[in-house]
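User: Teach me something about this protein's shape.
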Amino acid sequence: MSLPETFISCDWGTSNFRLRVIHTDTLSVIKEYSSSQGVKEVYQNYTDQDQLDKSSYYAKFLEEKLMSIVDLNQPHIVVASGMVSSSMGMYELDYTSTPFSAEGNDILSKRISISNNVQMLITSGVKQGDDVMRGEEVQALGLAKYLQDVDKGVLLLPGTHSKHLQFEANIFHQFDTFMTGEMFDMLTKHSILSNSVKKGPFDENNRSAFKEGVRKAVAEGLSKNLFKVRAKALLDNRDSTESFYYLSGLLIGDELSYLKEKQDKVCIAASGMLNQLYQLALAEVIEDKDRLVFFKEDILEKALLIGQKKILEKQYECV
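Assistant: First, the predicted structure itself:
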């Protein structure tokens, strides 16, 4: 059965929601809708009412958003990844287990009806021992296209909960989660360090402070250096913006420190400020620059669509 000319990409995270009409062959974006109505907010709104069951409530929400970008009188297929298949999402799917193929054969998916004309493919997350992920596995499927020249290595996906995926010969064998982004948010907003840090432009002084933090974490560890952020502000009158980036360097440096002793390639896909920070940190941690593979920022966006298309292709092969 041939693939449809277009499909709708749904990226539904904990705190964000995005729909995009995608040309299947070129993966170009035709129309787009996005909001901050992530699964957490929609689930809370669902529990606050008692008129619709969970599936019906989520289907109604989706139809309302889809109306802004497509004609619902025509048939459509939505490929959804992220938290939509979690316990808070529309339909809970069990996790698939590592290892999983970069071709997408091992990722579980389920086709459900949103309406007479709208079908939805939701994808499972991946579990490994005492760790899980939802959404990043689809990005990894897409990024595999750009890893074909790297036989073995580690794929880094920085974020609130950064994922490090070990891969070899087109198979993702294991992964680890680092709560770097969430820890940084908590420390800068809700800890004793919050009065000593302030976000500001990433100028040369702040770059130096960031790199200093990375080196400190790699050499001495994280915990013993955290309070020094406050101590330096009190004793040395250190600038609060420098302290902000020094703290960022400590956390990212701690996350990356184990890579110093490995020999594998390290590939990173990130966007915005995270991309800049992680590239700078990796250059401090890893001496052999031939081990580093930095993807362009737009590749991460494209990777999700490539991964979702793989899921779509597997579904149509089974029809």
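Now, about its shape. DSSP finds nine helices and 15 strands in the chain. The longest strand covers residues 171-178. If you'd like, I can walk through any region in more detail.
User: That's plenty for now, thanks!
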